[in-house]
Amino acid sequence: MFDCMYFALRVLVVACLVTCVQPEFRVYRDHQGSACVRVDAQFSISVTASKGNKLIGEKRLDNMTRFKFYSGSCDAAHAIVILNCTAGARTMFRFMFKTRGDAVVVIYSFSFFVLDLFPQLTPAVQDNRYKGYSSPGAQIGPVGTSYRCGRLQTIPLSNGDVPFETRRYNFSVTLSLRKIHAQAFNMSRGEFGPAVDCPAEAAGSPSVVAAVVVVLVLVVPIAVAMAATILVLYRHSGNILPRVTKVMTNIH
């Protein structure tokens, strides 16, 4: 038993070392100064290619394995962190920050060449162009604070193309942002300022509903099995107790 517990503990430690590492990206104004923008994030990008109603291909890029190199820049009102994908140097994801009055706005952007991600396609010339997708700007807090969110955010990225054209390939891009802690302006010695947490997810949102369904799927069968066991024991208790009483009487 102790061997099993030791093995389980080792598996848990190894799993944590693999999955709990959180990539960190820092950008500096110069080599001697402190970081002017800092992003700790776990995310993935899902890209699907379709033609008409037919799914042609799908690609998932995870920042833990597919985005190895990054760069960036920053000034008093704008900051950017650029991540390059191992699937192709022209495949890039960007965290873009800007000030809007006393607030900070973030935009998530992704761009790629079609054949870098989907080499199996044989698109027309117009389909082999550079594709750029981005999210709407989202206000994440006052200047001088950091933004923190530990829940999954599913964010569609758009490029303004007319969807579902049957004449050529169409692409859909979705950002799955699992965790993020970021700050772009007024950092003190490269450290995060006071954190502004993202709003809690609404009770009726799809992910919350999915979590409730998962819990029900796991719990209900166990409850049914327990109820069935209790019912069986109850039904047989009338036969068991008289036998026990008879044996005890014979002993005395």
Structural features, described:
The longest helix is centred in the C-terminal third of the chain and has 46 residues, at 206-251. The chain has 2 domains: 22-200, Porin, CATH 2.40.160; 201-252. It has 3 helices and 13 strands, in the order αβββββββαββββββα. The protein has helices spanning 2-19, 114-117, 206-251; strands at residues 24-28, 35-51, 54-62, 67-74, 78-85, 88-100, 103-113, 130-134, 138-142, 146-149, 153-157, 170-183, 195-197. It is 27% helix and 42% strand. By secondary structure, it is an alpha+beta fold. The strands form 2 sheets. Strands 1, 2, 3, 10, 11, 12 and 13 form a 7-stranded mixed β-sheet that branches. Strands 4, 5, 6, 7, 8 and 9 form a 6-stranded antiparallel β-sheet that branches.
Oligomer: single chain
Question: Percent of residues in beta strands?
Answer: 35-45%
Helix content: 25-40%
List the domain count as a whole number.
Answer: 2
CATH architecture label name of the largest domain: Beta Barrel
Largest sheet: 7 strands, mixed
- Globular, elongated, flat, extended or rod-shaped: what is the shape? globular
Number of helices: 3
Number of strands: 13
CATH class of the largest domain: Mainly Beta
* Cα-based radius of gyration, to the nearest Å: 27 Å
